[in-house]
Amino acid sequence: MDILDESFYSQDTAIVAKKILGKHLVRIYNNTVVSGKIVETEAYYGENDPPSRAYKGYNNFAKLMWDKPGKIFIYMVHSNWLLNIVTMSFGVPSAVLIRAIEPLEGLDFMLKNRSKHGKDLSNGPGKLTQAMYIDKSFNGLDATNKIGNLYVKNSYENYEIKSSNRIGVKRDLERKLRFFISGNKYVSK
Q1: Among 46, 135, 153, 169, which one has the highest count of C-beta atoms within 10 angstroms of its own C-beta?
Q2: pLDDT-based confidence at residue 1 (cuts at 50, 70, 90)
Q3: What is the DSSP string of 24-93?
Q4: Which pTM does this prediction carry?
Q5: Is residue 188 one of the residues assigned to a domain?
């Protein structure tokens, strides 16, 4: 099993957000493998990034953004859990939001959790966490842990990657920090 390690997540957040596209998000639930190809992400930096959870400085809510690369950071927006993976280095708040996946394994499990078909199953950050049954209990776990039940596995396929402004962000940085696989139907917009 080729799980992405801490060195992968130790790169600049935008680089990780691009390079993680096409990799496989894997969730183990009661010995059932549930996975999806990551097709859309967003990069979030720290105190200088207005939509970042770390924008107002260190706080208990977002303290995991200051943790080591590879830590899982889960928070709720509009009654949906959102999955982020911490990047860069310990003490530097930054994370990649996983926005959408293309289901690969465990489709029956996903359908049981979300009861939507086709792209509506996992084409958004809250949709993918519902489908994969990812909740607050994953907050603080290590995505680089080879015996963990949520991690990202390497994949060596190449894709055309496009970028845009982040979705739903009113005050954004001038950089395009949303990345997605061009032409994939599971991309949210």
Answers
A1: 46
A2: low
A3: EEEEEETTEEEEEEEEEEEEE-STT-TTSTTTT-S-TTTGGGGS-TTBEEEEEETTEEEEEEE-S-TTS-
A4: 0.93
A5: no
Residue 187 lies in a domain: no
Indicate the burial class of 98 (C-beta count within 10 angstroms; 0-12, 13-18, 19 or more).
Answer: buried
The answer for 128, left when phi > 0, alpha when psi is -120 to 50, beta otherwise, is: alpha
CA distance 155 to 173: 30
pLDDT (tens digit per residue) in 126-169: 999 999 999 999 999 999 997 789 999 999 999 999 999 988 77
Range of the domain at 75: 6-181
Does a structural domain hold residue 140? yes
57, 83 Cβ separation under 8 angstroms: no
- Which CATH number is 152's domain given? 3.10.300.10
Residue linked to tokens 């969730």? 27
Q: How many CA atoms lie within 13 A of 22 on its CB side?
A: 15
Category of 133 on φ-ψ map: left (φ > 0), alpha (ψ -120 to 50) or beta: left
- Number of domains, the chain: 1
